[in-house]
C-alpha cells in the first residue's frame, strides 16, 4: 500500500492545469556516495492524477494498493536552486499498481 501525501499542480503545454499526486510507501536503505554513511529513506514518487484540485485535496491521506519501485536510468543532474549544489542521479521511482 502507498499513501497519498500531497499533490502539486503544474501547467501543461497549452496552459491547462494538471494534478500530480505525491505518494509514499516503503523504506529503502542507501549509501551516500560522498560520506559512505548508510541511511534509510522512504520511497516516494510523483504520479499524474486525472482528477480536479478539489478531489486531489480530499484524497490526501488515502491509501491505494501498490508499491514504489526504483528503476535504473541514464544518469541525470538536478541543481538545487537555493544552494547551487549539483546532484547526479541514476534512478527514478515509479508507482506500480496492484490489481
Give a written overview of the molecule.
- This protein has one helix and six strands, in the order E-E-E-H-E-E-E.
- It has 99 residues and is mainly beta.
- It has a four-stranded antiparallel sheet. A two-stranded antiparallel sheet has the order 5-6.
- The mean pLDDT is 88.
Task: Summarize the helices and strands and which ones pair or pack.
Layout: E1 2-11, E2 17-31, E3 38-49, H1 53-59, E4 63-64, E5 66-79, E6 86-97
Antiparallel strand pairs: 1-2, 1-4, 2-3, 5-6
Rg (C-alpha, Å): 16 Å
Strand content: over 45%
Can you list the strand order of the major beta sheet? 3-2-1-4
Mean pLDDT: 88
Number of strands: 6
Summarize the structure in short.
The protein has 99 residues and is mainly beta. It is built from one helix and six strands, in the order βββαβββ.
Quickly list its features.
99 residues; mainly beta; four-stranded antiparallel beta sheet; two-stranded antiparallel sheet; 6 strands; globular
